Amino acid sequence: MDDGRLHIKSTLKTLLVLEQFLTSNTELGIHELSARTGIPPSTVQRIVNTLELKDYLVQNPRTNKYRLGFGLYRVGKAMLESFHWVEEAKYYMEKLVKKYNETVNLAYLQGQSIIYITKIDSSHILRPHFDVGTRFPPHCTSLGKALLAYMQPEVAERIISKRLPACTRKTKTSIKEIKAELEKVRQNGYAIDDEEFQEGLFCIGAPIQNAQGESVAAISMTIPKARLRNENLPAMVDDLLQTATDISNRLKRTSPQLVQSSQ
Q: What are the pLDDT digits (tens) for 11-56?
């Protein structure tokens, strides 16, 4: 509707395309978006490419259609609040922090990076300081390994085949090493990051799985090496795995349609 003020037509078209996802519970393709908005398919494709570049949209590699991405979280918390399971997950995360007083994180894979969705901080002065919404590489974090190990093999292959940065002297960057690491994660059910991402930090990660058994998120506990006691690790791992199972079960009941996001 024209209210008499000046508008940027290209911005209005972009917002019109984005709004189609706010009123639809399904993924949408280029031609569907064109039919809904009256915008030519070639223009819709350019708009979608731009929105995907900024992570406002993400493409499902199985259908080539699009859905909302986590870029919206960085603009505001509206998208996060629509994920009711995330708020419910915090209940289980808080129990874990109360027991061990170590920081617990929840993350999601977007493109070539993991994004921190939420976290519950330890009360210790010495603790990791990662902001929610921050991006980190998946190949050297327990969160990323837990996600990669339980997602579609071809998608994980595409991610780890890229040139990967060495964050510390312990970071594994070769495809052979990373594949062996992911196989170990699948055998054990959890991932370890022993100063591979940041010196002085030890992390345990486990996948959050949807109704199809795919990893859609991951949970981790981050422990400064100065406070790590090897005799406590088995209990920590067991409790982290139980927490991941509790959150996964809750996710399957409340959001069974949630699928992997990896583009």
A: 889 989 988 887 766 899 999 999 999 999 999 999 999 999 988 8
| CB-CB contact of 4 with 37 (8 Å) | no
- Count CB neighbours of 181 within 10 A: 20
Side-chain-side CA neighbours of residue 47 (13 Å): 25
Classify residue 3 by its DSSP letter. -
Say if CB 83 and CB 73 are below 8 A apart.
no
Contact at 8 Å (CB) between 251 and 258? yes
Q: Mapped to the 3 state alphabet, what secondary structure does 120-185 carry?
A: ECCCCCCCCCCCCCCEECCCCCHHHHHHHHCCCHHHHHHHHCCCCCCCCCCCCCCHHHHHHHHHHH
Global pTM value? 0.67
Predicted confidence (pLDDT) per residue in 175-204, tens digit: 999 999 999 999 999 999 999 999 999 999
Contacting residues for 64 by C-beta, under 8 A, at least 6 apart: 29
DSSP state at residue 230: G
